[in-house]
Amino acid sequence: MAGRVLIPSIEKRLEAILEGRRRTLREYDAKQDFMHPAITLTREFGCEGYPVAEKVQALLEAKTGMPWAVMDKALLEAVARNHDLNEELLSNISSKNRFLDDMFSTFSPRWKSDKDYYRLLCRQITLLAQKGNVILVGRGAAILTQNMENCYHFRIVAPMAFKVKSITRRCDVSTEEAYEMIETKQRRRDAFIRDFLGRDLGDPTLYHLIFNNARNSADRIAEIIAGYVG
Fold this sequence. Notes:
The protein is of the alpha/beta class. It has eleven helices and five strands. It has helices at residues 10-17, 19-26, 49-64, 73-82, 87-91, 98-107, 114-131, 141-144, 160-171, 175-197, 218-229, and strands at 38-43, 69-71, 134-137, 151-157, 209-212. The protein has a five-stranded parallel beta sheet with strand order 2-3-1-4-5, sandwiched between helices.
């Protein structure tokens, strides 16, 4: 249940999930200190983050002959499953009122705020980045791994018109609803990361490259990232 005490055992469990991939990676290590690269992919709400990640994965696997993993929804599923949490709760981190979270946590030691659940994700993100050959989508990974030498950071942005058109098509909503959705979700995401990690995801100095999704297709962005990293 969500109210149970969260124990930091998921690292071992997640490692078990990735053990096969790690064994394969070790076969390619020429030196003991070899570090496999890791990629963080940050995008504005409405941009093509997941399609790009999947295309980068395919390109790098073909180019290097090594396995790569995309960790986005799979990471949430692993954390939720191993802590008996509702996956929707983790997916919607930052959507709740943080003032209420803080207030209820004061009254009840069993209440867990968004920040408590996010700490679980932070541990997994850094662990996976250390192992390398992984593409980490969102969740503040670009900030969490900023000082790791094996990490490459990329961001996808686009004009509002592009994002509204994308959301209207993918979510089957009106233009007005799409605009409101983009404004609300982006504001909440940015505020949560800024509050928890003390950095702004919009800071261009965090990234190796920034792409305009309106001028670069998912295929083109993926090709450039794969060429840059590989």
